[in-house]
Amino acid sequence: MKPLKEYLRLYLVLETSMLKLPLEDFIGQAVDGGVTAIQLRDKGATANERLATANKLKRIIADKDVLFIVNDDPDLARAVGAHGVHLGPTDMPPDKVRLMFPELIIGCSCNDFADTVIIKSAGVHYAGIGPVFLTITKTDARPVIGVDGMHKLAEILPVPSVAIGGITENNVGRMMFSANAGVAVASALCKAENPQGIAAKIRASVDKYRPLPELSELQA
Ligand code: TZP
Ligand code: MG
């Protein structure tokens, strides 16, 4: 596998209820367009539905070089052999997940300075910073932090991050001026008739503004 931050360039937050295409076609197009990570979110689904979708997704991406993350549920992540789990403030605390599920990559939502303190101390591997803009996808979203707020949090985090919340092909360029590794996108991709085209546009912006490599990476 590549370094984690290479998988955080274009992070798809999958809400299958939004899809205009069958799941397999959508995922194929999204990955061909440049998606590097897929988080199964499907908030409205039952546990059985999420298990079935997770297994289906696992089969679809078996031959693809993408990171597979399950939202909220470390047990489901382990059961389906996902690479990791994404945790928010109402989920199991990340330090506990780290102890109980040492094989999982742990992502954590970051909305304010207090979250950065938890992320630093809990052994979290990456952060999702936002919502940057208003979002239709998350009904219980925390306060919008704006582009500047997102950049400030990204700069103080010791782990790679993705900006999240209301990101589209039209505003993605503004996300890439800080230490964040990429962007996380739900509706702009899931609702697209042409997900490959949208993914390719977003990915091109991310790659254009990618931060310079660390000195240690150049010396490796
Ligand atoms: N966390 C913060 S905003 C958000 C999540 C899961 C929703 C992102 O969805 P969209 O459609 O890309 O705004
Ligand atoms: Mg959660």
Explain what you see.
- The chain is α/β, with parallel strands linked by helices and 220 residues long.
- The protein is 37% helix and 16% strand.
- The chain has nine helices and eight strands.
- It has an eight-stranded parallel β-barrel, surrounded by five helices.
- Helix 3 (74-79) links the parallel strand 3 (67-71) and strand 4 (84-87).
- Helix 1 (23-33) packs parallel to helix 8 (195-208).
- The longest helix is centred in the N-terminal third of the chain and has 14 residues, at 47-60.
- The radius of gyration is 16 Å and the shape is globular.
- The model has no long low-confidence stretch (mean pLDDT 94).
- The structure holds 4-methyl-5-hydroxyethylthiazole phosphate and magnesium ion.
- 4-methyl-5-hydroxyethylthiazole phosphate (TZP) binds next to helix 7.
What's the SSE blueprint?
Blueprint: E1 10-14, H1 23-33, E2 37-40, H2 47-60, E3 67-71, H3 74-79, E4 84-87, H4 94-100, E5 105-110, H5 113-121, E6 126-129, H6 146-156, E7 161-164, E8 182-185, H7 187-190, H8 195-208, H9 215-219
Parallel strand pairs: 1-2, 1-8, 2-3, 3-4, 4-5, 5-6, 6-7, 7-8
Helix pairs in contact: 1-8
This protein binds 4-methyl-5-hydroxyethylthiazole phosphate (TZP) and magnesium ion.
